Each structure stands twice: as C-alpha cells, then as structure tokens.
Amino acid sequence: MDPVIEAVDLVKQFGSFMAVDTISFAVRPGEVFGFLGPNGAGKTTTMKIIQCASPRTSGSLLVFGMDPGTHSREIKELIGVVPQETNLDTEFSTYENLLVYSRYFGIPKEIACERAEQLLEFVQLTEKRDVNIEKLSGGMKRRLILARALVNQPKLLILDEPTIGLDPQARHLIWEKLKLLRSQGNTIVLTTHYLEEAERLCDRLVIMNNGTILVEGSPAELVRDHVGSGIVEAEHSPGVVACLNDLGIHYDVAGDMVQVVTDNPRAVAQELLSKCDAKRVLARAATLEDVFLKLTGRGLRE
User: Please, what are the domains in the chain?
Assistant: First the structure.
C-alpha cells in the first residue's frame, strides 16, 4: 500500500538555522511511527510540517498522496493532532470542548453530541462531562486532548509528547488507548522523550539529532544493531577502570558508572566481581535508551 506520509529530502530553515536538514522517511498505513531526539533535534518542526502548520523550505512531502503546500484543507480533514501544549478552551466544560471543536469539521450536531459522549467514555472522562477545564487534573486534560483529536475520526493521529508531565497511571492509560487505536487500523505518528514509551508503542522510529535522521528501524532492531543484547554496569573507580584495562574489556563512562556492552553479561559481571573487586555490579538487557544516548550523547540540551 502507498505510504500515509512520504518525505524525500525534506528541509526547513529559519533564516540561516537549519531546523530540518534533508531528511527522508515513510510512514506505512496502520503503524505507529516515532520521532526521537534531544531538544532541538527537529522533531516538533517535522511534525508541524506534516500537519500543515508550517511550510517546508524545500524537498518533497506527501500526506495521503497530497502536498501540504497545496492541499492543507483536505489533509487537515483526515488528521487529528495532540499538541505538546495544553490548549483546551477554559471557558467550556469537558463535553463542550469536544462539541465546539466538532464544528470546525462541519459535523452535524446530533452526530457530534453522540460522538462526544462516546469519546468521553473512551478516555474515561464521562464522570467529568460537565466539569470546567480548570478543575481537571493534568492527566485528565491530556486524555481530553486525545479525545478532541479523535472527534473527526481521523485516519492519521499526530501526537507531540502525548504523555508529557503525567504520572505513571495516566501515562499507562494513554498507552492503552493508543494501542487500541492502532489495533483498529489507525496510523499514529508521535514524538516523545520517554524512551520506554517509544519502545512499547512504536513499530518503527527514527532518532534525530541536529535536524538530521541518524538511524531508522524497529526498537528491537536498533538495540540489536547499535548496542547489543546486554549491558553490565559497575562503579567508576580507579581500581575497576585499571582492572578492565588489564583484562582488555572495552567500557564507556556514564557519570559515576562504567558500562560494558556485551552479549555475555553474566560472564562479564562475574569477572568484575571476582577479578576487579567491584562493589556494585548490575547486568541488564540493553534498551532503546542506551541506543539514544550512544548516538546523541549525554550532554544536556537547551
């Protein structure tokens, strides 16, 4: 089937600043596709171009086979957007926010009312139906924004940091709803800083840095290809470092810990304990976070 989104050499410049630097990717129907990267990597800018909120500088982009530069109205009718910021209308109740939003799509009132009730039930906010927005918790607001994005029954759902600032319970509830939407055939594109979220939800993803795409693949493929199966961690002490050097074991420094990437974590952990006299040793499976930090570095970004 044709891709839902297809970008070739996509570029976005703000003056001399290259926010998105000649990237290419395709999103298949029915998959969850993620954009990961540190702050300033170009993720949100890319999302805004896809949702027709910012024009590209150059390159090719098709959404449902249409160019956002010439068919923005048609594309917007087919997408739902969960923005990073909470932008609900505080003058209305939970239910009224959905009803008012439905008018942008010309949905008949009777259908809009029924759909609003169904969506409130879907995100478990029925009991907050008539509550003013300002009285909702942060998690409730994020769930309502997700419901609002589904008002027009979109074929493509675009989520920019959908669970930002939420507690674990609220985050898991939104994950559950996104998995259900995917099982129903929805195509989902998301950005997130939660690596566990990307690992749980995404069929495929890209990791961006400085406006470019570094890697693309499934979470499992990226972990296997760029890190390996296991990580062994020990305290970063002069004795441990000298011992690892004597044993010829390659390691990386991560703050107050050293990390050894290995396909045999048990054997490496045993050597650290028996030969290096390490006091703290942890053997664990490699994760997407290990890939992310390896490719984009550990320095803070503004």
Answer: 5-217 (3.40.50.300), 229-285 (3.30.70.260)
